[in-house]
Design a protein that fits this description.
about 450 residues; six-stranded mixed sheet; about 20% strand
Length: about 450
Amino acid sequence: MKHLLLFLCAFTLTTLSAQKEDGDQKFAPAQLKEDLAYIKHLLFEVQANPFSEISKPAYEQLFSGIETRLNDSLTATEFFKLVRPCTAFLSDEHARIGLSKPSKSYRSGYIFLPLSLKKVGKNYVLDTILMDDTGLIKDDIITHINKIPVEQIVQQCADYTSGFPEQRMEKAAKQLGYLYAMTTPAQESFIVTRNGNEDIKMPGAQFKTWLSFLSDQGHDDCSDLIRYTKIGETGYIDACSFGVRSDSAMEAVRQKIDGIFNQIQNDKVKNLIIDVSQNSGGNSGVGDIILDYITSKPYFGYQCNWRRSKEYLKQMDSWGSKDERYTQTKVGEILHYAPSEHKPGDNNRRFYQKVYVVVGQGTFSSAIMFATMVKDNHIATLVGQTPTNGHPNHFGELYSANTPNTGLNIQFGVKEWIRPAGKQGQNLLVPDVLLNDQDMSSAERMAKALVK
């Protein structure tokens, strides 16, 4: 969960730290309409499956509604507030529209509500207070903000996030104070009603306060990516990240994993726990390397639907990447790749005894893919808690571009990844064995809960 919040907000938020001088520049309606048409073109023609959640006519109506409001000049920030919902209904966890030219009030004004909420039963309760002396305390039930029911505000803010519908609602509550500033005119004080009858007036916070809060949501230091510890007769691998960005770094990780499994052999452990419960993803190749050390049997990978577009081909060319089948496919068509069969080769460090793979609220992106392949191919026992913000079937292989006038950055997936077992009724990764929060609180507790 912590990784995910940071990941999904950072695109929009970190760009604001540049303190752009031209943030208050006004753009003419013609320029704004050109940028809106560009966003629509990218979503409809480049994203892998833009109508997976809502129909094309419904999406057309969304864009038409925005266009009717572009009759006066706007700053990039004002335009951003209008178009941010355009990526919400893709069910794309990686999609976003980011702001690179923030107005002065947006980057330095006290316009952000300093509250983070969570839903408990039917109520929204105060999860985190970002400022001192607000008069609120953690777990207060928040019923209204500026006399508007909080349920209504959360629903509105959900359209300014991304991901699957239930995911957007949870994120909207967690990021409420930040997102609320997008949905309303700027204001520097708020009236918050707690417990249904007590109104508290509080000042707003600056953007940097929210940026600090979101930065603090990250995992503990994970610069070494993968760690190994021996706990009695159990080996514990904390695979906290797959964040590898170069061939040389991948080779270094490969050697490190080989060294870990060499140590596992020397330790003569009888059970192995591989923990990706706080792994927000990165390079799926790291997961593939780990799989080679825990199974000798052939297994199937993900299916893929990949949309052909001129824009993504141009991006591939800029990377020096070539795919003949993609190049030769007609623009607009979908390439389907069936699940590939992987046949592990000889590996004298392979672990043949009991393996558990742990998932949790921080499991996301390529870490979800790794854990899903484990489950669908019965490679190991999947344990932990169902990731509610990471989904087995999702969009990936990111495309990024900037609108020509306002400079908004838009990003989304051009590939639709489908788990080896195919689409199922519920797009969730459910562990074979559930663990409670106490069991998940440390490696020692995990080992005790799993190894009887």
